[in-house]
Design goal:
By secondary structure, the protein is mainly alpha-helical. The chain contains two helices and no strands. It has one domain.
C-alpha cells in the first residue's frame, strides 16, 4: 500500500487541513529557524553590498577630485 492509496480513503479535510497543521506543529520551529536564517543572511548581503558600493563611490569621488586638482596623474 503506497501513500496515494492511504490518502485516497481519507476525507478532504484530513488531507488539506489536519495533515498540514500537524506538519506545522511538528516542524514549525525548524521552518521558522530556516526562514529566519535566510532573511538574516539576505539582510547581511544587502548591507554588505551597500557598504561596498558606498566605499567604491567615496574612493572614486575623492580619487577623481584629487587627480583633477593635482593634474600630474
Amino acid at each position: 500500500m503506497d501513500a496515494k492509496e492511504t490518502l485516497s480513503g481519507l476525507p478532504w479535510w484530513v488531507k488539506w487541513i489536519a495533515i498540514p497543521v500537524i506538519a506545522l506543529v511538528v516542524f514549525g520551529g525548524l521552518i521558522t529557524a530556516v526562514i529566519g536564517f535566510i532573511v538574516g543572511l539576505l539582510f547581511k548581503v544587502l548591507v554588505f553590498a551597500a557598504l561596498v558600493g558606498g566605499v567604491i563611490f567615496l574612493v572614486r569621488r575623492f580619487t577623481s577630485a584629487s587627480s583633477s586638482s593635482r593634474g600630474d596623474w
